[in-house]
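Quick one, tokens below. Sequence please?
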């Protein structure tokens, strides 16, 4: 929800920024029109108004319109809902900060955004695997309610089950029956880690397919403008990190919002870097 809200606000801010209150000179309009045609070819933008031109009605679009207000409401709702989980709230705050950088400053290059998101999830998977192999659960993790020692048992059971058939796993739905803790409580029936759940039941082949799926999702965000791609990739990174320590895959609304984020990362939204490049080209041609 936070990622979708950030993309909505980003869409409006990028679309409305840079529109002057007075009509520009004819030379600037000519340069803008030429650059706008080039921008349309590169990004697929469908608007008929070039950057720097006043709308046909002579009004400058306001940033605080209904779409921005909708984005703010969705974002606040996401933050409030995430307060129930320490991990969710922390990742939501991280996503808010990353989105603010992308919207109001300059987002990193797309390849770097892809690398940050991919390695962020991989690091979480490594930490979860390490914690699952430990003989005891760290005391400082048990202080809060989000990461209780029950996860240590579930993750250890998943790794033990995976070791019996590393290549293809033991089959879908076999983890619950193999774990004494998981079979004794309905709320602990899942591994509480998507990576370990897939590894135990589908083996290395399943993990490779899951990795390709995540990489494909990040690649799907890359055709968008740089700042929009950064927000989308960071949103999916937070989802990937959270699914490595919880069973979010069991909740359809999570994937509904994740799909909405992916759909909103459309390629016709200009990034702050794209705007800076166009403004520089305009200055050079004047």
């Amino acid at each position: 929800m936070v990622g979708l809200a950030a993309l909505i606000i980003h869409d409006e801010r990028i679309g409305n920024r840079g529109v002057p209150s007075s009509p520009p000179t004819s030379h600037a309009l000519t340069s803008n029109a030429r650059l706008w045609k080039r921008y349309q070819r590169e990004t697929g933008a469908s608007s008929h108004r070039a950057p720097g031109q006043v709308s046909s009605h002579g009004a400058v679009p306001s940033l605080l319109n209904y779409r921005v207000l909708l984005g703010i409401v969705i974002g606040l709702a996401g933050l409030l809902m995430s307060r129930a989980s320490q991990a969710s709230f922390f990742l939501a705050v991280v996503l808010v900060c990353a989105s603010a950088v992308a919207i109001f400053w300059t987002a990193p290059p797309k390849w770097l955004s892809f690398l940050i998101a991919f390695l962020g999830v991989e690091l979480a998977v490594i930490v979860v695997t390490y914690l699952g192999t430990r003989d005891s659960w760290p005391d400082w993790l048990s202080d809060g309610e989000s990461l209780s020692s029950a996860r240590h048992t579930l993750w250890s059971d998943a790794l033990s089950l995976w070791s019996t058939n590393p290549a293809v796993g033991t089959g879908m739905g076999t983890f619950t029956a193999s774990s004494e803790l998981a079979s004794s409580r309905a709320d602990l029936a899942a591994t509480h880690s998507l990576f370990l759940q897939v590894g135990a039941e589908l083996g290395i082949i399943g993990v490779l397919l899951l990795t390709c799926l995540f990489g494909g999702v990040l690649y799907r965000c890359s055709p968008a403008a740089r700042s929009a791609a950064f927000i989308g990739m960071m949103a999916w990174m937070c989802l990937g990190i959270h699914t490595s320590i919880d069973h979010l895959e069991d909740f359809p609304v999570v994937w509904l919002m994740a799909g909405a984020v992916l759909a909103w990362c459309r390629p016709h939204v200009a990034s702050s870097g794209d705007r800076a490049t166009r403004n520089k080209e305009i200055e050079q041609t004047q």
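Residues 194-221 form the longest helix (28 residues). Residues 16-29, 47-62 have pLDDT under 50 and may be disordered.
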